[in-house]
Structure prediction request, 588 residues.
Amino acid sequence: MDYWSKQYIPTLKESPAEAEIDSHKLLLRAGLVRKIGSGIYAFLPLGAKALDNVKRLCCEEMNRAGAMELLMPAVVPADYWKAGPRWSAAREIMYQVASAGENAEFPEEPAFVLGPTHEEIITPLIGSEANSYRDMGKTFYQVQTKFRNEIRPRYGLMRAREFIMKDGYSFDATDEEATETYKNMAKAYEKFFARCGLKFISVEADTGVMGGAFSHEFMVPAEVGDDDVVYNIESGYAANVEKATSGIIPADLEDAAPVGDIEKFETPGVKTIEKLAQEFEVPADQQFKTLLFVGDDKLFAVVVRGCDQVEEAKLGSLGYALIRPATVDEIFEGMGAYPGSLGAVKGTIKNREKLDGVYADEAIRLVGNGVTGANEKAMHLKNVNVTRDLDIDRFGDFRKVQAGEPCPVSGKPLEIQRAIEVGHIFKLGTKYSENEEYGALYVDKDGNRQPAVMGCYGIGISRTLQSIIEQKHDKNGIVWPWSVAPYQIIITVLDPGMEEADTLALELGQAAEAAGASVLVDDRAERPGVKFKDADLIGIPLRITIGGRGLKNGEVEMKWRDEESSQNVAIGDAVRVLLEGIEAKSKL
Ligand code: ATP
Ligand code: MG
Prediction:
C-alpha cells in the first residue's frame, strides 16, 4: 500500500503546449512521463508502474505460448548489421557510434549501432551454435529499449526515438512448422492486446524491407494513428492500405479495342489531371498518370489511372529496397519532359534507356482508350490504347485502394479507418538464416545442413501503453483498465489524521492487497475536490472515499472510474463489497 504523500505524482492542471493529442496530454498531466528531448522521454514512477504492467502481461502471454525470454545487447557491433541484408536500407534510422577512443566527429564507418530491432543479432547468435533439428521449434523474445532516429518523432511515446519493444524470433525446421509457430504467436498477440483492454484488429500487412512470406499487423483504431486499415466487417477482410486490394478489376476484364489512331492535341497551361478533366472534359478515370520514382538509385516510371494514387509501399514488390519520388531534374533526365505532360506512349519517352523500367497498375486496363501527356510542353495524346500504345514492362498492383470500392472477398463496399500499429508479426522464411557465414543453419535427420525457417514478432510496449490511454479516457482523465492501472484502487481519505478514517483506510487497503490488488491511499491535506480531480486524472479504476458525512453515517463511497454513479456501502459491508469487485475485475 502506497501513500500519495510519500509518492511522486506531479499532476498538471493544464496540458503542456508540446502535446497535441489527448493521450500525450494525459501522459504529461497525470505525471506519467516527462520529455527529455525530441522523441525521448523519461518515465516517472506512475508511468513506470503502468509500463511494467503492460510488459508483464506481454511476457506472460509470450511464456504461455512457449517463447523463452533472453536479453541481447542494445549496443551492437556494426559488423553484425553490415553482414546482413538491410545495412544500407536501415542505416539512416540507426544511431551510429564511434568506438571508444576514436576521435571521429561522426563516424563514416561506425563501430557500433544502437539496435533498432534484432534480426541481425539473433540470427548469427543462434546460428553460431551447433544446432540439430532437435534445436528447432524454438521461439525467443526480449523486452528492450530500441533506438530509431525517426525523422519526425511525434505524439509522445507513439513515435519516439527511444522506446520499449518486445521483439521475438522463431526458428523452425520446416515451413509448415514455421507457419504453425506464426499462428500460435498471432493468438498470443490477440490474448495480450485483449488483456490490455484494447479494441484492436489484426490486418494483413506489407512485408516491406523485412522481406519474408507474409505478415500481420495489430491495429488499434484511432484517428491519431499513422496507418489506414481497409476492411469489410461482413467478410472479415482487413488489410493495411499498404497491402490492401479491392475488387474493382473484374477477373474477366478484356483489353479494350482501339477506338482510333492516337491524336495529339494542344493543352496550354494544363499541368494537372483536374485541369485536363475540367477544360477538355476527360474524366480523371479516362486519363493515364505517369509518375517517376528512384529505387536503389535507378529511375523508373509507374503508370496509374488519373483518378488513382500510387501506394508507394506496393512498389516494394518491384524489388527495389530504397524508393523515393524522383526530383523534377531526375524526371526531365528520364522523360525529356517535365511533370504535367508526362506519358508512357511508345516512342515518346525521350531517354527510355535511362529508365530501369516502366510499370503499370492493372487498373489502367479499365481506361482502355484514354488521354495522357505527350512528353512535350502543353501537349497531350488521345485515343491512347493500353495494349497497342503503352510502353509497359510489367503490370502489377500499385494503386491505393479507396473507401467504397468492392471488397476483394465479398464485393461489398470497403471502409477505411485510421489506426495505430501496436504489433507486427512476420513469417520471414529463410531470408536471414540461409547465409552460411552469418545465418542460422541446422543439421536435419539425414545429416544435411538446412536453413532454419524464421519468424519475427514485435510489440511496441510503450506505444501500446499510450494507445490504451488514447482509447480509454474521458474529459476528466485516463480510464485505466484494471490490468494495466498503475494502482487499481485509490482510497481517498477526506480527513487524513482522523484516526477512524485512517484506520479504516488501512483495513480496506490491506484487504484489497491480500486479494491481489494494488492500492494508493490519498492522504494529502488537499481539498476533496482536488483529490477527486486527481484520482480521475490518473485514472485509478476504483475509488473508495472515506470521511465527511459518509463516515458519520457509517458508510464509505465506492466509485468505479468507468461508471457514472457511485455506491454508498455500510462500513460493515465494505470489505465484502470490495473483495467482490476485485474478484470480478481479476477474472477479465
Ligand atoms: P511504424 O510503421 O509505426 O514506423 P514499424 O513498422 O517500423 O513501425 P516494427 O519494426 O514493426 O515497426 O516494430 C515493432 C513495433 O514497435 C511496432 O509495431 C510499433 O508498435 C513499435 N514501434 C516502432 N517504431 C516505434 C517508435 N518510433 N516509437 C514507438 N514504438 C515504435
Ligand atoms: Mg511494422
Summary: The mean pLDDT is 95. The longest helix spans residues 175-195. DSSP finds 14 helices and 32 strands in the chain.
